[in-house]
């Protein structure tokens, strides 16, 4: 069902609505969604209006689900506790594709400062931010609003601005990082790398592999930190913060503030991921579903827009992104058998990332492109 006003609908019929021109005009400001909000708009511009009402996409949540929370305390000291944690990580990765971790070793003060540093970047003078605004995804630091802004398969622009920082394996020099979040970005990234390697050990054990397996095949080699800024929206029922999608990495470690809005598609229902003080959200990415041959699932999720804001989140993607590499990833041979043949063809990380980026957040999974047809 269309949610466009009568005037907008008639304009489209007459062909007078030039979406591409409006997208380019928005992009040329380099001010992002925040620039529109700062200009004092009271209605969502046409480029952001979703073609169907947001609530029509939501299944009624008749069943109450408890989002999995895993306590990592004592994981290296108690073998029994360690096995219990491995079992919980495996179960959550197979059924939800998502879980939260507490007692993960990253100080609360570091997490809070990372959120504040991200906010400082987006709320500084626009002329300073413009220095980083680019659609060249090969750069180590990229400030952009909607990486898929011009993708023809994406029906509406998302209510979100972002900064992407490639922190590993070839991290930027401090001078390349924005002053507003420079120090905390380096500190937080170091903590997340340590946590990520531990998570990959647990995920390896959950697959029945040696704990070092996923780290040894370089799943933890690359880290891209994405800071997202979702301004308060005057008409959140018309637009969305992030379209439904699954992540194009091995795993994602997410730090979110207390506003909420992140939802996971679980058993055909959209489930809120509750903001939990001190917790980090972990989710399986497409590449881990591919190499685990569907043992672990990369699940669709989205972010709703909100009249309250800004919402700040920091998503840490474990993959090498656009870095050139010839390393091939396919279903892990130790997991295969006559009864469990490979379900995906091999790919490089950059090939997968490029395909994902070109496709954009159009509501379909990039994994389908790599599926071996029976």
Provide a short characterization of the protein structure.
It contains ten helices and twelve strands. With 374 residues, the protein is of the alpha+beta class.
Description:
This protein is α+β, with helices and mostly antiparallel strands and 374 residues long. It has one domain: Jelly Rolls (Sandwich), CATH 2.60.120. Helices cover 29% and strands 18% of the residues. The chain contains 10 helices and 12 strands. An 8-stranded mixed β-sheet has the order 1-2-10-7-12-5-4-3. A 4-stranded antiparallel β-sheet has the order 6-11-8-9, with no helix packed on it. A hairpin with a 2-residue loop joins β8 and β9. The two termini are 36 Å apart.
Please outline the helices and strands:
Elements: H1 6-14, H2 19-29, H3 32-38, E1 69-71, H4 79-95, E2 98-102, H5 108-123, H6 126-129, E3 141-144, E4 161-168, H7 182-206, H8 213-216, E5 223-230, E6 240-245, E7 251-256, E8 262-266, E9 269-272, E10 280-284, H9 286-291, E11 301-304, E12 311-318, H10 349-359
Parallel strand pairs: 1-2
Antiparallel strand pairs: 2-10, 3-4, 4-5, 5-12, 6-11, 7-10, 7-12, 8-9, 8-11
